[in-house]
Amino acid sequence: MPSYHFTRKLAPDLAGDNIHANPGIIRTRFHEKMTTDQPRYDLANRIQLHREGTSEDVAEVVRSLTTNQLKTGESVAIDGGMGMQTVC
């Protein structure tokens, strides 16, 4: 997972400036171009929790990452378990 490795490299460089490095994925306009079948397929077959995330889900993770004084270099997936699947 490239963002994980990037985060681990970036975190020590930014720690001296009290900047916490924690990437994530946020729904963008890219997703608006999906067919109606794709989100349905994802919910049924790829997303373990079978529901889409909400802005409140993202906000809770952001709050945790920005208020915890010892957390840095973390990569938190807000993907309903989709990232747990392995590609063979």
Write the layout of secondary structure elements.
Blueprint: H1 2-15, H2 37-46, H3 55-67
Task: Please give a structural write-up.
The chain has 88 residues and is an all-alpha fold. Helix content is 42%, strand content 0%. It contains three helices and no strands. The two termini are 15 Å apart.
> What's the CATH H-level superfamily name?
NAD(P)-binding Rossmann-like Domain
Radius of gyration in whole Å, from Cα? Answer: 15 Å
Strand content range: under 5%
User: Which residues sit in consecutive blocks of at least 5 with pLDDT less than 50?
Assistant: none
Shape: elongated
Helix and strand pattern:
HHH
Note the gap between the termini.
Answer: 15 Å
Largest sheet: none
Helical fraction equals 40-55%
Compute the number of structural domains. 1
Write a brief caption for the model:
This protein is mainly α and 88 residues long. It is 42% helix and 0% strand.
